[in-house]
Task: structure prediction
Amino acid sequence: VSVIVPVLNAQAWLPDLLGALMAQQPHPPLEIILVDSGSTDGTLAEATRWPAVRVVPIARFTHGGARNLGAREARGDVLFLLTQDARPADASTMDRLVAALDQPGVVAAYARQIPRPDANPMEEFFLAERFPAGPPVVRRAVSGQPLLVGDVFFSNVAAAIRRQALLEHPFDETVIMSEDQQFSRDVLLAGKAVAYAPDAVVLHSHNYSL
Result:
């Protein structure tokens, strides 16, 4: 498993995030690739403290472009995509998420997100609705039926994707957001499946204003 994390001025997040990743059981990831968009804080200095971490610079950031670059650079057969502010909730998060790929036809799976302790009620409600505790779900396209928003929902905040599937169906580098929904749509239309793995959990929330 290769971990890919797009970063920008991530110094405040990295010690906790990298520590949690290297504590994953039964094995830590093969490598952690930080796709850096020109950080000016201590991100690069922190990265050098971790032997498994490699920094790959990107000149022009897009959500899809950063992740595609990480996929091309990766050595692992499976990619574990994270954002810099998403932390595995326990030492089995990565293993459980990757295990979801063992289901027939599944090439990508996304994790459950739970709020951080400081999350406001609106954020808690949103995450509970969008990332319920269970059950697990496998989505496939049905011939002759259109794909709706709920059918293609996917989240790159914490996802496991077979590297070959992403190389064959790369993220659209021109969209400003929802490249994860676009990827999910493309693989579903190609006859593959995506999964929601609620037993794999990350801490992630934003206290957005109205």
